[in-house]
């Protein structure tokens, strides 16, 4: 299935990210703004188009390829760097077609432990659709930035929080317990707190611009705010929740 927008023009400067399935389907994006959040978007798009139970984040980075075109002011020329992970390296001709790259030479991205074929095979029973070929080549557009004109958030009366951690350990459990007690004792409005392991979901860490752990991100209400490191500082934590100060419980 070929996306009807397949032949749209491609800018001279852009970042292109491709996400394949084990069966050979392809979703890709062409982003002139190079926002760097496309792995997450492509996984979500793949979930929608194949009607999966959840986004297939385990495909990242093993089944991805990236092309970057930028202007080099020193040489006054456009430079290109392209790399693909071993499981999708054989699709170089298709990648050159969708990115209009001619006979571009692709490099093999360094393999990672999480790309072990035996590990990826364990997902097959949960996502059998990904191991089928649907003749899908689909281009996804960049998501427009959120503005006040867009529909209201589905959480207008509460908080949406994400806690990024590096694996689960006794320290992680202690952080989560302390944070839970703080939120329960200090907030009147409802909240949702999602714990995200950056080793299992690197694309989510990339999307939220998380480079260290632990990191607490307040996604809603705007503006987005974050705390990196010490989450035991009560005043510091409550400060990032200040957009709903009227919701803090009275002592």
TrEMBL record:
SMART domains: KaiB. It holds the Pfam family KaiB. Residues 162-243 form the KaiB domain. It comes from the Bacteria. InterPro entries: KaiB-like, KaiB_domain, Thioredoxin-like_sf. One of its GO terms (biological process) is rhythmic process. This is KaiB domain-containing protein. It comes from Leptolyngbya boryana NIES-2135. The lineage of its organism: Bacteria, Bacillati, Cyanobacteriota, Cyanophyceae, Leptolyngbyales.
